[in-house]
Amino acid sequence: MIHVHAIDHVVFRTNNLKAMISFYVDVLGCHVERELPKESGLVQLRAGNALIDLVRFDSILDKVGADSPSQNGRNVDHICLQIQPIDKRQLIGFLIRHGIEYSKFEQRYGAEGFGESLYIDDPEGDTIELKPIKHVE
Predict the structure, then answer these.
(1) Helix runs in 79-136, H state only
(2) Does the N-terminal or the C-terminal CB of the chain have fewer CB atoms within 10 Å?
């Protein structure tokens, strides 16, 4: 029922936004695509056809709300998978049949711009965002 197309974006939590931006821009050649106001703590970097989102620890957008990212802490907020277009009702029915809890669909920004997506958790509690692609190749 669900067919993954690609990784849309990965969200890293960080204690040092400036150092992370420098690493991904200066070392890996990404570029800053979008920044939200400082209090949101979000910088989005273009990495080929995907995005790397950097979220400042303990900011408004830090969804994990856990300890500061560290060697023993959690620094991945979530990953977003682009999936083939699917009717929302069919997707929700599929998730229900598999006993998977889900969030409501909301407009969010990703590698293809704004589009609707929802969140689920894998068996280990990692958050996965499912975002139907806008076009089919």
Answers:
(1) 88-97
(2) C
pLDDT tens by residue, 34-90: 998 777 789 999 999 999 999 887 765 555 555 555 555 667 888 999 999 999 999
> DSSP secondary-structure letter at 103?
P
Q: For 19-81, give the DSSP string.
A: HHHHIIIIIT--EEEEE--GGG-EEEEEETTEEEEEEETTSTT--S--SPPSTTS--EEEEEE
Q: Among 90, 95, 117, which residue's Cα sits nearest to residue 8?
A: 117
Sort 90 into a burial class: Cβ within 10 Å, 0-12 / 13-18 / 19+.
exposed
Give all domains of the chain, ordered by start, each with its CATH number.
4-132 (3.10.180.10)
Would you say 56 and 17 are in contact if contact means Cβ atoms under 8 Å apart?
yes
